[in-house]
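During data preparation, we tokenized the protein backbone, and the record follows.
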Amino acid sequence: MPSQLSKTFGDRTAYDLLVTNIEYVIERQPHPDWRITDFANPRSSILAYCVSGRAHYLIDGTAYEVTAGDVLYMRRGAPHTASSDSGDPWRFVSTAFTLVDPTLAEPSEPEAIPVITRGVRTDAAPYFQDMYTAWAGKDPGHLLRIRGAIALTLNKIIAAGNAPEREAPYQRRISKVTQLLAENVDRTYSVEELAGLCNLSSSHFRTLFKRATGLTATQYQQHLKIARATEFLASGEYNVTEAARASGFRDVYYFSYLYKKLTGINPSAVARS
């Protein structure tokens, strides 16, 4: 079943995007000679996350520089030429997939998604890591996990592009919180603690955090913890109990329940013997 993403652009009413066929998920290590010349993928849209370094793109005749923390989006069939920066070659994770707007008479890919989205480093990184882990593991439900991660990434891109200017100071505060959470996955923070870090009331923080990330603070921490636990399990160095504890879960039974709820598979299916 394809994943759905509800959204609104400008004055348009909300509609759904469907993430369907996953062509690949790859991770490229830094290489100064990496380049693409006059290529257009006729089948798939592409999302790429710049882990480090930088790259130079020419897409539909427009030049872009991609730097660490940026998310790059290319619609299906977009002609592009690209190369790593010779002095600081980029490392990236990318995925190719089919994206359509089924509300149109002739289903086609929307054009309103920006090519470059900056400032979503701590929010986007776990999604791309989860895509790569799921693709590499090929466990039952891995395509569903990847579609979900793509949908969450697109939702983050849309939220970043449509945030009102008056909320910019608060967005910076929320970004600091998401960075803190990403750097301390083994801890669990209460809403009150996080709101205090932003000098906001708990109710105001809840509203802004959900608007910025699409998740509650509890859900966001759960997703980070499960993504980190997946890395531990896939490494072969942790069993289920050890991965749960290293990811901040005190109760392994609750961890197993939440893991199955969010990923569709049991953590034991990911752990390597």
